[in-house]
Design brief:
Layout: E1 3-5, E2 8-22, E3 36-42, E4 45-49, E5 60-69, E6 75-84, E7 89-99, E8 110-114, E9 127-138, E10 144-156, E11 167-174, E12 182-183, E13 194-202, H1 219-223, E14 226-233, E15 242-250, E16 259-265, E17 283-295, H2 302-309, H3 321-328, H4 332-345, H5 349-363, H6 376-388, H7 390-396, H8 398-407, H9 424-443, H10 451-467, H11 474-493, H12 507-525, H13 537-543, H14 549-562, E18 578-581, E19 600-604, E20 616-623, E21 626-630, E22 643-646, E23 652-655, E24 666-670, E25 675-679, H15 683-697, E26 706-707, E27 712-713, E28 716-717, E29 731-732, H16 747-760, H17 762-777, H18 794-825, H19 838-854
Length: 855
C-alpha cells in the first residue's frame, strides 16, 4: 500500500531476521528457566510473533518476517514475553525499540540489542493538537496583565489500554507561577478524542502600559515557563488512571505574535523508566532491512526501463543494462530481486533468462559444474521460482509437510544422536516413509508446474545440450540443479521461508526435514555414485534403500515433462489453491495464540445495536474458488464451513471506517445480499487480506463501482446518513484492473529500486567504464583492478554504461527537485509532521544544509 504525495507514491517495507536472545533474567520458580517468545510491533501494534521456545534463558527463535508497512510509525519495536503456564499469564521481560530514523544504521547486518525495561510510562504513542494564545487583560486597577489560553483540540492514535480507551487531558503551567492542573472532560470509547476545550493561566506580574509594548513579555520569564499536557486513560480499576503520554511546550514558541498552533507527538515521562543495569535483562540479535521507495509516475522511468527491458536483445548480453547491474552490485541477489520482478511484470523474463543462461553455459568448461555458482543467472532463476512457484509448492508439499510437523515421529538415523527411548530401525522406516511420500508427490506434480518455470527449464536444457553434446545427462542435470537443489530441497528444509508453515519447526522436526531434504536433493541430482555423495556413513547406508532404477526413471520422466516445449495453459488446471488463512484476534486485552491456529473476528451487517457479543472468532480460508470461515481450524478438514462465499459473489473488498464500531483494522467483504464485517489482528494483516481478496475477485464483471465506507447501524448508513439499507454506495471503490494473483508486481517501483542500486554503485559504473577503455586501447594482460568485471565487448558495454549514467542522472535530478519542493511546502508541527518527529527534524536539518550549500 502506497502513500500518495502529489503524484509520488511512497512505499515502506521491512524484512527482519529474529535470531536469538541471550542472558535473559532467570525465572523466580524452581526451574529458573523461561518459556519465551518475541513479537514485532509497529510502535505498540503487534504485527508478528514467533513460536514459544521452552525452558531456556538463551532462546533461539530463528524466524524471518517480511511486511509492507501500510502506515506511518515512530518505532520498530521487539518485545520478549515470558509465558507462565502455572499462573496462566504472560509478562514482558524487556523490549528493543529502534526509531525509524535509526533503522539505516543497522541495515542488513546482524546486531545485538540490549533489552530495555518496559513500564506504562515508557510506552506512549499518538499525537495531540493544541493551541496557545497570549492575550492582554486590564485589571480593575488599570494595570496590564497577560493571560495564557491553552486550547486542547484533539488527539489521534492513542493506545488502547486493557481493551478500552476513555481518554482525558490535564493541562498544567510549569515555572515560577505554577498553577494547579486543569482537566478536560473524559471522552468515552475512542482513541481519537475531540476535546476542543480552553483553559486560562496568568503568566506575568501586572505591568503598566508605559513599560511594555503589546505582547512584549520578558524573554527571561518565558524561558522559565512551559505548558505540560498529560493524556490519561480513565480506568475503572482500583489502581488508578493509566498514563498515556505527555508534551511539554516552552512559552518561548509564542514569539512576538503571541500565538502557537501545532501538533505534537506524545512523549514518555522524564522519570518514567526505572534504573536497570544495561545487561540485566539480556540482549536480542536482529537483522533489519528497512526500505522506503519514492516512486514517480511511470513516464519518469521510461529511459531506464526501456534499457532494462531490451537487455535480451543486446549482443552480447554481457553488454546489456540488466547484466551490468549484476556486475556492479555487491551481491547478485540485490540485482536479481528487482530485475526478475520487472521482467515478470512485462512478460519478458523467459527471453532474458534464456540469454544470460546461454552466455553462462558457453563460459562453463566442465558439465559437472553447470549452474553451480551464485551467478546472476542462478540468482534470477531462484527468484523466479520463488515468485512463480509459490502456489505450486503449496499444492505439492504443504499437505505432507503439515503431516510431518503434526505427527512428530522420530526419524533420527545417526546412531550417535539416537535417544535411549528410540529404535534405529523404526526411525529409518519413518524416514523412508516420508521420503517416499515427498518423492512421489514431486515426481507426479509435473502437470502443475507453472508454465513460466517450464519455459525457463526448456531454455536451460537446450543450452546445456548444445554446449555439451557428448554428455547425454547434462540436459537433466541443468534442470535438476534448480528444481531439486534450489527449489524443492530448500522448501523442505525451511518450510517457514516458503510460507508452507507459519513458524520455524521445532528441533526434532527440523532435523527430520533436514534428512528428507538431503535425500530428495540426492535423488534429484541423478549423481552416478549416489552413496558417495554423502559425507555421513549413516546417510550412505540409508540411501541404499533408494538405489533402484525406478527412482532415476521417475526423476527423468519428471524432468522431461517440466522442460518440454509447447506447454498447456496453466489456467485450465482447476485444483483449488489455498491462498491465505486467517489470523488470531481477540476482542479484549491482548492477542492470544494457540499454536499455529489463527482467527479473525467477523460480524454480519444489519444489526441495529452494536455489542461485542455480535463478533465471533472464526477461522478464515481463501482459495482461488471460495472464501470460507469455520468455527475453528480443526473444522477445515473434511467438515462443512459455517459460511462459504464463492469468489464470483465478492463484489468489493474495502476498509471499514473506525467510527462504525470504534474498532481498528476492520474491512468489509461485500456480497449481493449483505456485507461481512471483519476485524483483522493488526494493520499489516488487514492490508494483506484486503489486497489478496481484491486481487482474487477483480475478474468479477459484477464488481461494484461505489460502496459505503461505514456500517449500517441504528437505521442509517453512518457515512452518508441515508436511511435505506439498500442505498447505492456513496464512495468510489478502490482497486483497478484484474491482476495476476501469483505475480503481483509494480513495475515502476521495481525500476525505482534498480535506479537506487545504480545510484549506490555509481563508483563501480565509473570503474567499469575505465575498464572498457583499457580493454579497447590496450590488448594485453588484464589489469587486476578490472578483473572482476565480465566484459566481452568493450565498445558495446561502454555505450550501455553511458546510457545508464544518463538515465540515472536524470532521475537523480527529479528526486532532488522533489526534495526541494517538499521542503518548501512542509510545515513542521502539522498533522503529517508533528513536533517531536525526530526523523523529520533530521530531514529538515539535512535539507537546510543542502539549501545552504547550493546557495
Amino acid at each position: 500500500m502506497a502513500v500518495e504525495e502529489e503524484g509520488l507514491r511512497v512505499f515502506q517495507s521491512v524484512k527482519i531476521k529474529i535470531g536469538e536472545a541471550k542472558n535473559l533474567p532467570p525465572y523466580s520458580g524452581p526451574t529458573r528457566m523461561r518459556d519465551s517468545y518475541c513479537t514485532v510491533n509497529l510502535d505498540q501494534e503487534e504485527v508478528f510473533r514467533t513460536k514459544i521456545i521452552e525452558k531456556s534463558l538463551c532462546p533461539f527463535f530463528g524466524e524471518d518476517f517480511y511486511c509492507e508497512i501500510p502506515r506511518s510509525f515512530r518505532h520498530l519495536s521487539f518485545y520478549i514475553f515470558d509465558r507462565d503456564v502455572f499462573f496462566r499469564r504472560e509478562t514482558i521481560i524487556g523490549k528493543v525499540a529502534v526509531m525509524k530514523e535509526d533503522l539505516q544504521k543497522y541495515h542488513g547486518r546482524d546486531t545485538w540489542f540490549q533489552l530495555q525495561h518496559v513500564d506504562a510510562d515508557s510506552e506512549v504513542q499518538g499525537k495531540v493538537h493544541m493551541e496557545m494564545r497570549l492575550s492582554e487583560v486590564i485589571t480593575d486597577s488599570g494595570a496590564l496583565c497577560h493571560k495564557l489560553g491553552i486550547r486542547v483540540i484533539e488527539c489521534q492514535g492513542l493506545p488502547i489500554v486493557n481493551g478500552q480507551c476513555d481518554p482525558y487531558a490535564t493541562v498544567s503551567l510549569l515555572g515560577p507561577s505554577r498553577s494547579e492542573a486543569k482537566k478536560t472532560k473524559v471522552k468515552r470509547k475512542t482513541n481519537n478524542p475531540q476535546f476542543d476545550e480552553v483553559f486560562f493561566f496568568e503568566v506575568t506580574r501586572p505591568l503598566s502600559y508605559t513599560r511594555r509594548s503589546h505582547f512584549d513579555v520578558e524573554e527571561e520569564d518565558l524561558d522559565k515557563m512551559a505548558i505540560r499536557i498529560d493524556l490519561w486513560n480513565a480506568s475503572n480499576l482500583k489502581f488508578g488512571d493509566e498514563f498515556l503520554g505527555e508534551i511539554r511546550v516552552s512559552l518561548k514558541v509564542l514569539g512576538q505574535c503571541g500565538l502557537h498552533d501545532a501538533w505534537y507527538f506524545l512523549q514518555p515521562r522524564d522519570n518514567g523508566s526505572k534504573s536497570v543495569k544495561p545487561d540485566e535483562l539480556g540482549s536480542l540479535r536482529l537483522n533489519i532491512v528497512y526500505t522506503e521507495d519514492h516512486v514517480f509516475p511511470s513516464e519518469y522511468y521510461s529511459p531506464l526501463r526501456d534499457l532494462l527491458l531490451n537487455s535480451a536483445d543486446v549482443e552480447p548480453v554481457s553488454a546489456s543494462t540488466a547484466h551490468v547491474l549484476g556486475e556492479v552490485c555487491r551481491e547478485k541477489q540485490e540485482a536479481a530481486i528487482p530485475l526478475v520482478r520487472l521482467f515478470l511484470h512485462y512478460g519478458k523474463i523467459v527471453p532474458f533468462l534464456s540469454a544470460i543462461a546461454s552466455a553462462e553455459v558457453n563460459r562453463t568448461l566442465d558439465p559437472n559444474t553447470i549452474f553451480r555458482g551464485n551467478s546472476l543467472t542462478s540468482k534470477c532463476i531462484d527468484e523466479t521460482m520463488k515468485l512463480a512457484g509459490m502456489h505450486y509448492l503449496q499444492v505439492t508439499l504443504k499437505p505432507i509437510i503439515d503431516e510431518i510437523c503434526e505427527e512428530h515421529k522420530p526419524c533420527e538415523i545417526d546412531p550417535v544422536k539416537l535417544k535411549e527411548s528410540e529404535n534405529l530401525e523404526t526411525n529409518r522406516e519413518n524416514l523412508r516413509h516420508y521420503v517416499d511420500q515427498i518423492f512421489t508427490v514431486i515426481t507426479k506434480s509435473g502437470v502443475s508446474c507453472p508454465t513460466v518455470m517450464c519455459d525457463i527449464f526448456f531454455a536451460l536444457r537446450e543450452s546445456a545440450a548444445k554446449r555439451f553434446q557428448v554428455d547425454l545427462d547434462v540436459r537433466y542435470t541443468a534442470v535438476s540443479s534448480f528444481i531439486f537443489l534450489r527449489f524443492f530441497a530448500p522448501a523442505i528444509l525451511s518450510p517457514n521461508l516458503f510460507h508452507l508453515r507459519p513458524h520455524h519447526p521445532d528441533p526434532q522436526t527440523s532435523r527430520t526435514l533436514t534428512l528428507i531434504s538431503k535425500t530428495i536433493q540426492t535423488l534429484g541430482s541423478l549423481a552416478k555414485s549416489k552413496s558417495a555423495s554423502f559425507k555421513e556413513s549413516y546417510m550412505a547406508a540409508f540411501y541404499d534403500y533408494f538405489n533402484d532404477q525406478k527412482y532415476a526413471d521417475a526423476v527423468k520422466n519428471f524432468l522431461d515433462l517440466i522442460s518440454s516445449s509447447g506447454r498447456w495453459d496453466q489456467k485450465s488446471i482447476e485444483t483449488p489453491i489455498m491462498l491465505k488463512e486467517g489470523t488470531v484476534k481477540l476482542t479484549v486485552k491482548k492477542v492470544e495464540s494457540k499454536g499455529s491456529s489463527r482467527f479473525m473476528i467477523k460480524r454480519a451487517q444489519g444489526r441495529k445495536r452494536f455489542g461485542m457479543k455480535n463478533f465471533k472468532k472464526r477461522w478464515f480460508r481463501l482459495t482461488n474458488h471460495e472464501f470460507t470461515y469455520h468455527k475453528n481450524k480443526g473444522n477445515t478438514k473434511g467438515d462443512h464451513p459455517l459460511c462459504s462465499i464463492p469468489i464470483e459473489n465478492i463484489l468489493a473488498v474495502e476498509r471499514l471506517e473506525e467510527e462504525s464500531f470504534k474498532m481498528k483494522n476492520m474491512f468489509q467483504v461485500i456480497q449481493p445480499e449483505r456485507a461481512l464485517y471483519i476485524q483483522a489482528n493488526n494493520c499489516v494483516e488487514a492490508r494483506d487480506w484486503i489486497d489478496i481478496l481484491t486481487k482474487v475477485s477483480q475478474c468479477n464483471n459484477k464488481r461494484l463501482a461505489t460502496y459505503h465506507p461505514s456500517a449500517y447501524l441504528n437505521g442509517h448508513w453512518l457515512c452518508c446518513k441515508v436511511s435505506a439499507d439498500n442505498a447505492p454506495g456513496c464512495t468510489p471503490c478502490t482497486g483497478g484492473l484484474p491482476a495476476n494473483i501469483q505475480l503481483d508486481v509494480d513495475g515502476d517501483r521495481e525500476t525505482e529500486r534498480i535506479y537506487s542500486l545504480f545510484s549506490t554503485y555509481m563508483n563501480k559504473l565509473e570503474k567499469m567504464q575505465e575498464a572498457c577503455g583499457s580493454k579497447s586501447v590496450y590488448d594485453g594482460p588484464e589489469q587486476e583492478e578490472y578483473s572482476s568485471f565480465v566484459i566481452d565487448d568493450p565498445q558495446e558495454t561502454y555505450k550501455t554504461l553511458k546510457l545508464i549514467t544518463s538515465a540515472v542522472h536524470r532521475l537523480e535530478q527529479e528526486h532532488a527537485q522533489y526534495k526541494r519542493d517538499k521542503f518548501k511546502k512542509t510545515k513542521y508541527g502539522s498533522q503529517e509532521h508533528p513536533i517531536g518527529d525526530k526523523s523529520f527534524q533530521c530531514y529538515i536539518r539535512q535539507q537546510s544544509e543542502c539549501s545552504t550549500y547550493s546557495i
